Amino acid sequence: MIAIGSDHGGFELKQKIIEHLRDRGIEVRDFGVFNTDRADYPDVALEAAVSVSSGESEKGILICGTGIGISIAANKVPGIRAALCCDCYMARMSREHNNANILALGERVTGAGLAFDIIDTWLAAAFKGGRHKARIDKISNIEKHFVSGTE
Ligand code: RB5
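# D-ribose complex -> structure
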């Protein structure tokens, strides 16, 4: 299952992405928002990111106006590696090298057609492990240090 969420700045693109994913037979859980009323992106980022970090959702897609705020917020949740991607190369590399578990997009930056290609590329790509795993482990250690103060 893919967790999906947006603020008002990403609402229209979120709706199109949900349709795109469901057309491909992919199960989606929509964490809102459900209209274009002004909303705070950290609220949706938190709920969708916890769904991913807990394992309830396999991956997540978050959208705000630029993709910046919602990715910053999601990355505060332990275990989350949210990657803001503006093209297919970034999308592929964020999976192969960074093992990103959330893809962030900006509705005011990326058109729907390109967003669909970015999503398809991101979902098809796999983490390569090896030397990249050691780097991801170092990121986890930074997180552990500041969350628990023990490392
Ligand atoms: C909302 O106006 C906008 O600030 C938000 O969608 C996002 O772009 C923040 O990073």
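# post-check
The chain has one domain: 2-148.
The radius of gyration is 15 Å.
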